[in-house]
Each structure stands twice: as C-alpha cells, then as structure tokens.
Amino acid sequence: MLQNIPQYTGQPPQQSICPIMSVVPTEVKKPHARQLNQTPFKIGSSEIFSTEIHSEMALWGSKMAMLKVGVLVFYYQALCLNKGGDVHQGFQSLLTEVNKACAQCVLRMANRLFGEKTCDFLPAFKESCQKFYQAELEELSFAEDTEECRKHINDWVTKKTEGKISEILGAGTVGPLTKLVLVNGVYFKGRWNEQFDRKHTRGMRFKVNQEKKTVQMMFKQAKFKMGYVDEVHTQVLELPYEGEELSMVILLPDDDTELPVVEKALTYEKFRAWTNPEKMAKDKVQVFLPRLKLEESYDLESFLRSLGMTDAFEEAKADFSGMSTKKNMPVSKVTHKCFVEVNEEGTEAAAATAVIRNSRCSRSEPTFCADHPFLFFIRHLKTNSILFCGRFSSP
C-alpha cells in the first residue's frame, strides 16, 4: 500500500501501513506545503504485502484533515501543515472538482464519521466536516448495540461503493466503549480511452525476484504518451480513461533496475516532473499490462501514531474539545479499505484457458511490457491529484 506522509524520517513500520507522501491539492501549493511535495515516498515491506493499494485522496482528506477540525494545535504541526484554513478549503475545492469529473467515469467517495450519541458532538464540527470534506457525522449507540452499529456502518459503505466493499469493519473491531469511528471507502470505475481486446489476452510470465509466475497479460498497440526517467532507468506510460479527465500512470523500471530504487527516489515533486506532458511523447507503442484485481484493508492507528498523533488514541490525553463537549474522548478506530480491478475495458476500483507464453516481450519497436514489478497511479488531470496508487509486485 502507498500512503501519505509529510516529514517522516523514521524506518517504515513493519506492518501493513507503509508511509508515503502523495496528494496535495493545488490550492495548498504554498510554502508551508513545500515540505510535503519534496518528501520521499516510502513503501513498506513486500514480505508482508506483495500487492498494495489504497486511495490517496481518501486517506489524506477524510481521516487526517477531518481530525484537524477538532484537534488542538500540535497534531498538524507535526505534519507541517500549520495553516489549516488553506488545507480545508483546498480539499473542499478538490473534492468538488473530482466529484463532478468525467461523465464517462464513476467515482464514489464513502467518507463518514460515526460517533457515540452520548458524546455531544458540537454543531460547528459537524458543519465543518460536511462543508469541507462532504462527510457527515452520524451518531449511533455503540454502548447499547455494538453489533448493530457495526452492521449499519458496513451496510452504508457497501451501498456507497456499489457492493465492491462489503465489510470495512470486521467482527470485534468496535465495542461498547467505542466513541468515534472514521470510515472511508472509495469506488472508481472507468473505461479506457483505448480499450484492450480480450482476444489478445494471453498467459505470460511475470518475473518476481528469481521466480516467474503466470499472469493474464493484456495487449494493446495504439498511440499513448510515454517517457523515460534516466535518473532511475524507468519507463513512464499514461493510459487515459474515456473523457480524458482521469488517467492511469505506470512507472516501470528497466529489467535490471529493482523497484525499490524507484520507490526510494520518488517524491511528489519528482512524480509531477517525471509525468510532465512536455517530457512525454505520444507515440505508437505496444503495451503489455497484467489484469489486476486487488483488495486491501488497513487499520491506520499505528501509522498515525508513527506520525506523532499518539494522544488522539489515548483516553487520558485525547483533547478533541473542538469536536465535543466531552473531554478525554479518544479516536476508537480509523480504518481504510480499497478495491481496484484493471481489465481490458478499463479500471474498477473500490477483479478461456490461456496459452502460456514463455518468451519475453519483443523489443523491436516501442514497447511497454509490464512483466515485472511496477507502480501505478490513477490521477485527476485538472487538479493533478492522485486518487489511487499502488504497487504490483506479485500476482
């Protein structure tokens, strides 16, 4: 999984949450956000997850920024975002632009806070969440009927993601003492501007370290924007969706370059530079891309703790007086789930017996052959914001 992180210099935690800095709305491109743009992406241990995905905008906006509405002073000082007004207004504009983007695509953002009804949440906090992040705070009775609350939350997310995310909260994840749950799910479905033909999909070898596994490899020959980054010996390919307001960008290292080399060098500013249209040429290219169907779930508490937000989860220290009249009300749960499917028609995000081809891709003409680990990003072109990103390193 790829994850947002401002100025974080420690070791990536050995767990599913792997820090990475990414999306910053264009309206927040101010001096106080510059550190964010220059911070390296950090991707977690491939020994834990061979394929990792998540929604960048969702994690940054719905969880961390909504918390800021109610947090006093220092949490976001640790995140290098001291001027909160710009952050809130930036995400308000970003969500508005993205939600109205591309009539040919479907994008569903399931952002909501669920709070214990006895906590007396402040009207101003509820209004801010709705205004800036399109996220309602719904009050439930965790103390009286924990399981019914869990099912209610799951049903809400399932509906918002058109059934692709069915159980964002597993059994036992909430209890009678739960005070606040922050939930996010995202569903995206887009058709390629240039669709792959199913009849050309074949079984092909995908190289993982010293092993080779079989994947269903799609093929398309058409004109696409393509570039090359000498710094990390990596090909860059952009595959637009219908309407050309959203696109998938793929970073594919050369055969003799390991993916961690790219990950270590990658920052948000470098990503923008590497994918700058002026540095990419539209050319007829042979594209080989595996079918993808990925789904991941994450509890973000340990990740947020690693950023310095420790008090938010501890009853004796939590100070969310900007959210509620109740004191010592810790965050009970911050969870995220993401689904991405890439096939011949396009991408769905929120999954005939082939002939095995042992040969590698032909290099006789411009070719982009994703038969070894790569990074992928789905971005909104107008705001240059990353909606989803992930690593595909093993079938």
UniProtKB/TrEMBL annotation:
One GO term in the molecular function aspect is: serine-type endopeptidase inhibitor activity
- Domain Serpin, first and last residues per copy: 51-395
Q: Which domain of life is it from?
A: Eukaryota
Q: Name one Pfam family in it.
A: Serpin
Q: Under the cellular component aspect of Gene Ontology, which terms does the record hold?
A: cytoplasm; extracellular space
UniProt keyword annotations, A-Z = Cytoplasm, Protease inhibitor, Serine protease inhibitor
Signal peptide, first to last residue: none
Per UniProt, subcellular location reads as:
Cytoplasm
Q: Which family does it belong to?
A: Belongs to the serpin family. Ov-serpin subfamily.
List, alphabetically, the PANTHER family matched.
SERINE PROTEASE INHIBITOR, SERPIN, SERPIN B8
Name of protein: Serpin family B member 8
Q: Which species is the source of this protein? A: Equus asinus asinus
According to the entry, what is the taxonomic lineage of the organism? Answer: Eukaryota, Metazoa, Chordata, Craniata, Vertebrata
